[in-house]
Amino acid sequence: MCSTDTSINNGVQIDDVGDAFGSFGRNSTVSTTNVTQLAPTQRYEVYYNMNHSKRGLALIFNHEFFTVSHLKSRCGTNVDCENLKATLKDLGFEVNDYHNLTQKDIVKQLERVAEMDHSEHDCLVIAVLSHGELGLLYAHDGAYKADSLWHYFTADKCQSLAGKPKLFFIQACQGDKLDPGITLKERTETDGYPSSIFRIPTQADFLIAYSTIPGYYSWRNTSRGSWFMQALCVELRDNGTRYDLLTMLTFVCQRVAVDFESNTPDNIAMHQQKQIPCITTMLTRLVKFTPPRNGIV
């Protein structure tokens, strides 16, 4: 049985149907939130508004040590943390870094930030540097679901960030598969109707950038830091106010894919392996950082 919905296209009312079994009825949760929040940008603006009085908060959850018996210490993660912290500060963010927090303490920080007033902020950044598995990340004392990170910041829960970019960067394994790569030989030679009010999905305006694709290993150098964080910080430093974020993340993928290869000659199975980041976007506009004014945005 189909459930119908009503949409408007070019001013014409049209019936839509739910495409999933049991949609709007059987074991489904439907938000009835109908709060009107002041939009930070015009309906069809190409770019997010990055001209608020403050750039916004950036949280870094850095995990080096664990009480979980099978998890080794993450040597090199502090290099990632300091590198990312400096890079985000240069872009105008107020950066808070946390080290080896428990699951409970991570939740406390997420709840605290979700309850803040972000009205004068451009966006939010949250980064996690840790061990992981498919769909899971590790705190100091155990695993938690990765999607719980952004659960607190949907538009219905954190209304002062509604319509603003919420950016998540995750350096962690998503499994134990390896990518041996392949050698390539280089060649020698919409309309809309006008309205002052519009609705957006509560899950809109998120971007989640994983260091690797689902099911695969994520590499980290013990002295220089992880491949993904190295590439991300270089790209943000070199082109942070030149390109939009998705363009920069495309080049982050390029850097990781082309410039890095594992070097473990004593372990042939792990030697000369490759990696590719995975970007999931629910952004509705382009994110382009404006130059900081005297280092402060």
From TrEMBL:
MF (Gene Ontology): BIR domain binding; cysteine-type endopeptidase activity
Taxonomic superkingdom: Eukaryota
Pfam families in alphabetical order: Peptidase_C14
Q: Where is the Caspase family p10 domain?
A: 196-291
What does the UniProt keyword field contain? Apoptosis, Hydrolase, Protease, Thiol protease, Zymogen
Q: What's one GO-annotated cellular component?
A: cytoplasm
Is-annotated flag, keyword Transmembrane helix? no
> Which ranges carry the Caspase family p20 domain?
54-177
GO terms for biological process, alphabetical: negative regulation of Toll signaling pathway; neuron remodeling; nurse cell apoptotic process; positive regulation of neuron apoptotic process; proteolysis
Matching InterPro entries, A to Z?
A: Caspase-like_dom_sf, Caspase_cys_AS, Caspase_his_AS, Pept_C14, Pept_C14_caspase, Pept_C14_p10, Pept_C14_p20, Pept_C14A
Q: Please state which protein family the record places this protein in.
A: Belongs to the peptidase C14A family.
The protein depicted here goes by the name CASP1 protein
Q: Which organism is it from?
A: Acromyrmex heyeri
